[in-house]
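[Automated response] Your request has been received and processed.

Submitted sequence:
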Amino acid sequence: MGNVGRKWERPVPLRTEYERRAALVELDALVAVWLGITEEQLEAIYPARYPILGDYEDVTWFDANGRKIAGNWNTYGTGQTKEHWEQFLKYLEDPENNPVPDGYTAPFYKADRIAEYRQAHAAFSARLAEATRLGAPGQHSEGNR
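Generated structure:
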């Protein structure tokens, strides 16, 4: 999610579509680690239980400012039109000769929930392992659950 600290301050709210989506991905991974779901199991759950979300994200991108542009009208970004998507496809085909869609800023990031799950799951698993190693309060052994 970027530079989010422990203290709530004005810049902390998730203001962009990219930040809000990143928070959802991280929450999925965090809960998976908490429940003991492995990275591989989490990766398998996503396409098995949420195929439509996967279809939507196959045509979802974010610009440099965190603004979403999507190919499915059900998931268009804020203020996005069909014409923006058509401009974006032309831009992807030939960025040298076609401008980015009006109101968007290159470079663009392609949504990839599986890769993002891997990264978040690894980070949260490492944090849990470190907290367990240090004997952090609230950590319980398997027999105490």
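Summary generated for your ticket: The helical segments are 17-35, 39-49, 51-57, 82-93, 113-134. The CA atoms of residues 28 and 117 lie 8 Å apart.
If you did not submit this request, please reply to this message.
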